Amino acid sequence: MVKNPNLAKAINDRGWGMFLTMLKYKAQRFGHTYLEVGRFFPSSQLCSETLLPIPILQNGYNSLGVRFVDCPHCQKQHDRDINGAINIRNEGLRILALGTSASAQGGDVRPMASGRKKSTVVLAIPDE
Ligand SMILES: [Zn+2]
């Protein structure tokens, strides 16, 4: 989210770091697991049913104004936010199960810029 310049200013202005601190504290307090998914995880660009990449240029899907996309893989219409949320949840569960954030595709391919956050999305999953 924070890599989008329009959203980044709004999120940073409202104290994203403070929000994360509070979320960690609340997760610990209520016995939940707090973890962060890699900032380059393509949550909105994968079909949540088949895990295949959704062509991002199709129908201008890369624009945040496009809220739905017709998936060429599962033939369903995905809500961008719901699809992304399902992918983030599944990625969090995968990280928990494997104990590593390395992805099957070989992890992050972009170099980590110094002074920037490692991740932008957060999960708080109830412990079993
Ligand atoms: Zn799909």
| Low-pLDDT residue intervals, each spanning 5 or more residues | 106-112
Helix content: 25-40%
Order of helices and strands: HHEEEHE
Quaternary organisation: single chain
Strand elements, count = 4
- Largest sheet features: 2 strands, antiparallel
Number of helical regions? 3
What's the SSE blueprint?
Blueprint: H1 5-13, H2 16-29, E1 32-38, E2 68-70, E3 77-79, H3 80-98, E4 119-126
Antiparallel strand pairs: 1-4, 2-3
The chain binds zinc ion.
Characteristic terms for this protein:
128 residues; alpha+beta; two-stranded antiparallel sheet; 3 helices; globular; binds zinc ion
Please describe what this structure looks like.
This protein is of the alpha+beta class. It has one domain (5-126). The protein is built from three helices and four strands, in the order H-H-E-E-E-H-E. Strands 1-4 form a two-stranded antiparallel ribbon. A two-stranded antiparallel sheet has the order 2-3. A hairpin with a 6-residue loop joins strand 2 (68-70) and strand 3 (77-79). The structure holds zinc ion (ZN). Zinc ion is lined by residues 47, 49-50, 71, 73-74, 76, 78.
